[in-house]
TrEMBL record:
Protein name according to UniProt: UDP-N-acetylmuramate--L-alanine ligase
Organism encoding this protein: Saprospira grandis (strain Lewin)
GO molecular function term, any single one: UDP-N-acetylmuramate-L-alanine ligase activity
Binding site for ATP: G116, T117, H118, G119, K120, T121, S122
EC nos: 6.3.2.8
Record SUPFAM superfamilies: MurCD N-terminal domain, MurD-like peptide ligases, catalytic domain, MurD-like peptide ligases, peptide-binding domain
Summary of the function given for this chain in its UniProt record: Cell wall formation.
Top-level class of the enzyme under EC nomenclature: ligase
Domain Mur ligase central: 114-288
Keywords: ATP-binding, Cell cycle, Cell division, Cell shape, Cell wall biogenesis/degradation, Cytoplasm, Ligase, Nucleotide-binding, Peptidoglycan synthesis
Length: 453
């Protein structure tokens, strides 16, 4: 589609409250366009968008759409029967998927795309902070709220843009990055891909779209022949071009040494704990070095990074009570979050809350979820958050519970959860999941731990 983005004066988002959609909405709001949109539910994020000057409604009514929209954008999470989506499909208004619009933006700038079934939000946020703290004023479209920015979007004056490259619905194949990162290629989104091999085919295709440099986490299943980009590997556990060693927990941070191509740096202090986050930081460091940042700029950037909302976020940090919240919704992510909490507080009983996300993901990884959650000392398991899906027969949270070996485990409703936690607030609590569990977090902090902002 031949479309001059700077000429758009009025843009409409169907599903504006999604994390990727809201970043694009903020971009066009920054450009001075009038931004309007629909979402099913009012959230803290949509309220923030309204505060920023956007117009949002929460009832699905095509008659609320103005007649003179220059461009309409939608997310694949919106069902095909949505009346507003159908209105735009029938009208002469240009209509793009979110990923197609992000792809157009990537063609206008020098882009760095961060892909992976997990780790991409953390890596892209760390990278954005390192670059901006080191003097490269990049633009960024992120899949989470970076605490240093207070947003999932930031506008910069340089040619560089950092993009989170989403594999869902093969979205990342619309991008044309100069530099790429692939953090992981574990099986996920099998409702879209069917088989893990099909997902790997998409990652291989994405790798081929990177024109200059590609950084791969060691162990990712990416074919490296016939690539235009120069390939380098990074790892927090194996030999690689960029390798972390002597990784140790110094709560609340992690400290590590790093072999970075021809450089060796000792005692890097990183504010986001966990071996997996050290690996994410390595990828960001590799790109920062490629773009000319110095050792001192990178050291300071790592120290000053303040994390991402719902990515191992310290919600309550009291001498005898700690509450950490994490977006983990895949077995690999659950294992990483649980392992990190244990490494920081090895002598405390670890109590977890988990809300599975999607019936299809629960079906595909039922045994993996059970094994990962067995790493806790006690579990409160919530019902599955369906998001865009209809129920699948025989797939529920009780089926996960039945597969677990853990003795202290129970299925609870959100209403029951608060009452149970209040009986004896855990000394170490970890909430996990990608659904609406995030809305429970401030309630737990205030009602159980009596935290006030």
């Amino acid at each position: 589609m031949a479309l001059a983005l700077a000429s758009i004066k009025k843009i409409y988002f169907v599903g504006i409250g999604g994390i990727g959609m809201s970043a694009l909405a903020r971009y066009f709001n920054y450009l001075g366009a009038q931004v309007l949109g629909y979402d099913k539910t009012e959230t803290a994020l949509t309220k923030k968008l309204v505060e920023e000057g956007m117009h949002i409604h929460y009832t699905e009514q095509a008659d609320q759409i103005p007649a003179d929209v220059d461009l309409a954008v939608y997310t694949p999470a919106i069902p095909a029967k949505n009346s507003e989506l159908q209105y735009f499909q029938a009208a002469a208004t240009p209509l793009l998927k979110r990923s197609e619009l992000l792809g157009l933006i990537s063609r206008e700038r020098r882009s760095i795309a961060v892909a992976g079934t997990h780790g991409k939000t953390s890596t892209s946020s760390i990278l954005t902070h390192l670059l901006r703290a080191g003097g490269i004023d990049c633009t960024a479209f992120l899949g989470g709220i970076a605490n240093n920015l207070g947003s999932n979007f930031v506008a910069g004056s340089s040619d560089w843009v950092v993009l989170e490259a989403d594999e869902f619905d093969r979205s990342f194949l619309h991008l044309r990055p100069e530099i790429g990162i692939i953090t992981s290629t574990d099986a996920d989104h099998l409702d879209i891909y069917g088989e893990h091999t099909q997902l790997l085919d998409s990652f291989n295709e994405f790798a081929g779209l990177c024109s200059k440099q590609l950084f791969l986490a060691q162990g990712t299943e990416v074919k490296q022949q016939d690539l235009s980009a120069k390939v380098a590997h990074y790892s927090a556990s194996q030999s690689a071009d960029y390798q972390a060693s002597r990784i140790r927990a110094q709560a609340p941070n992690f400290v590590f040494d790093a072999q970075l191509a021809e450089h060796f740096w000792e005692d890097l202090n990183f504010s986001l704990p966990g071996r997996h986050n050290v690996e994410n930081a390595l990828a960001a460091i590799a790109v920062a070095l490629e773009l000319g940042l110095s050792e001192e700029q990178i050291r300071q950037g790592l120290r000053s990074f303040r994390g991402i909302w719902r990515r191992f976020e310290w919600v309550v940090k009291q001498p005898n009570k700690v509450f950490i919240d994490d977006y983990a919704h895949h077995p690999t992510e659950l294992k990483a979050a649980i392992r990190t909490a244990r490494s920081l507080f090895p002598k405390r009983k670890l109590v977890g809350i988990f809300q599975p996300h999607l019936f299809s993901r629960t079906r595909d990884f039922m045994d993996g979820f059970a094994a990962a959650l067995d790493g806790l000392d006690q579990l409160y398991l919530l019902d599955i958050y369906p998001a865009r899906e209809e129920p699948i027969k025989g797939v529920d949270s009780a089926a996960i519970l039945a597969r677990m070996q853990l003795s202290e485990k129970e299925l609870v409703s959100q209403a029951e959860l608060l009452a149970k936690l209040a009986q004896e607030p855990p000394a170490l609590l970890l909430s996990l999941g990608a659904g609406d569990i995030g809305a429970l977090v401030p309630k737990i902090a205030e009602e159980i731990y009596h935290k006030t902002e």
